[in-house]
């Protein structure tokens, strides 16, 4: 290459080429802006998102129905427990003594009821006996009375016979009254239906159940949290011992701004991102909107009528159910942070439920059958104290 070639000025880009490049760049920006506008109108306009959302769920407080001393703690924090599993055992001495006293009182009530029945029968026999005495006295008087007119009997003897008849009649009336009183307490009732027996039976059933429940059991499946009870501790009835959390029934409480809730409806689909499981997207649906903002239900709700009012955007808790299969695949602990996105395309639903709840929110059957078993034992005690007649 010659020195003359090196000294040539660089070729200038033609105006036409520059215009083409600028037009292409402008078209790219226009297309990007159009795409964003379309995305905003077709997608973002039908989504509501918040990161003020947390996993929450039921927290079942485990407590005792009676006072007692703890002799064993069978589950610790983080342990999984099954429904009906024994969590805490109390010293059985007091409840067993109370049960023994109730058994003795029931036996005594059954015996006394039979004694009352026997006394009514005895009163009937006394009526028959006094009636016979009255009949004899009346016959004796009727025999002596005509003899007085014929002067065949002394007046004193006739008067004595009359007095004996009147006394026998009075005794007969008294016996009948006593028999009626005795029968009022026993007629029309079997031994087991006597009020005293029923009261003693109820006391026995109560003592039986108290003795059974000295073993404090978990009412549900779940995981133990906040264990506070210790072996040897004397606890009071109703005292919180530990908490069982059923993680299979967790849900999301998402706090949306009041400017976001206009198009949120029950049943709308939801996508959930959980910080603890960033590799998985959970799905769910809107269950309902709370009846008030969080500030309304706070311990010290704000009073805006003081004159020093500053408007603060409020947040309304929205309850979101999580897909149970996804929740079973990766359980979520209470309190975990989530990012919630609600798809509001379908806005035909209601913002609040229109029908009352028709199913149990939570239930347990671990106590079923205890009363029937206690009554069966009470009936056995009653039968054992019946005396054959």
UniProtKB/TrEMBL annotation:
Family to which the UniProt record says this protein belongs: Belongs to the membrane fusion protein (MFP) (TC 8.A.1) family.
UniProt-recorded name of the protein: Membrane fusion protein (Multidrug efflux system)
Domain Multidrug export protein EmrA/FarA alpha-helical hairpin stretches: 94-213
Alphabetical list of InterPro entries matching this protein: EmrA/FarA_HH, MFP
Localization annotation: Cell inner membrane
Keyword Ligase: no
Protein's membrane topology: Single-pass membrane protein
GO BP, one annotated term: xenobiotic detoxification by transmembrane export across the plasma membrane
Keywords on record: Cell inner membrane, Cell membrane, Coiled coil, Membrane, Transmembrane, Transmembrane helix, Transport
Transmembrane segments: 20-39
SUPFAM superfamilies reported in the protein's UniProt record: HlyD-like secretion proteins (SSF111369)
Coiled coil region boundaries: 99-178
Superkingdom field: Bacteria
Pfam families in UniProt: HH_EMRA (PF25885)
Record carries keyword Cell division: no
Gene Ontology cellular-component annotations: plasma membrane
């Amino acid at each position: 290459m010659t020195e003359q070639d090196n000294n040539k000025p660089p070729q200038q880009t033609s105006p036409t080429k520059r215009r083409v490049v600028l037009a292409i760049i402008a078209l790219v920006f226009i297309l990007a802006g159009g795409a964003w506008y379309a995305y905003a109108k077709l997608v973002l306009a039908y989504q509501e998102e918040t990161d003020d959302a947390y996993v929450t769920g039921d927290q079942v407080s485990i407590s005792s129905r009676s006072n007692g001393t703890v002799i064993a703690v069978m589950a610790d924090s983080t342990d999984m427990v099954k429904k009906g599993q024994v969590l805490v055992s109390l010293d059985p001495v007091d409840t067993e003594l109370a049960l023994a006293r109730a058994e003795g009182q029931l036996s005594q009530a059954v015996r006394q009821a039979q004694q009352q029945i026997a006394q009514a029968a005895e009163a009937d026999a006394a009526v028959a006996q006094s009636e016979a005495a009255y009949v004899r006295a009346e016959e004796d008087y009727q025999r002596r009375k005509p003899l007085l007119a014929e002067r065949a009997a002394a007046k004193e003897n006739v008067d004595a016979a009359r007095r004996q008849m009147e006394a026998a009649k009075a005794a007969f009336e008294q016996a009948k009254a006593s028999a009626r009183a005795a029968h009022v307490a026993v007629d029309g009732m079997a031994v087991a239906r006597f009020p005293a027996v029923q009261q003693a039976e109820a006391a026995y059933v109560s003592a039986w159940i108290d003795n059974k429940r000295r073993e404090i059991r978990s009412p549900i499946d779940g995981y133990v949290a906040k264990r506070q009870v210790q072996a040897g501790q004397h606890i009071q009835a109703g005292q919180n011992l530990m908490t069982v959390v059923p993680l299979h029934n967790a849900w999301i409480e998402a706090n949306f701004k009041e400017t976001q809730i206009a198009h949120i409806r029950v049943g709308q689909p939801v996508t959930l991102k959980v910080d603890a499981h960033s590799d998985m997207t959970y799905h769910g649906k809107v269950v309902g909107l709370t009846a008030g903002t969080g500030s309304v239900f706070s311990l010290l709700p704000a009073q805006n009528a003081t004159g020093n009012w500053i408007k603060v955007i409020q947040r309304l808790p929205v309850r979101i159910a999580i897909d149970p299969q996804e929740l079973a695949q990766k359980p979520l602990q209470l309190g975990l942070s989530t990012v919630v996105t609600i798809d509001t395309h379908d806005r035909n639903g209601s913002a609040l439920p229109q029908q009352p709840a028709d199913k149990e929110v939570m239930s347990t059957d671990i106590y079923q059958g205890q009363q029937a078993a206690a009554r069966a034992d009470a009936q056995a005690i009653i039968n054992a104290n019946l005396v054959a007649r």
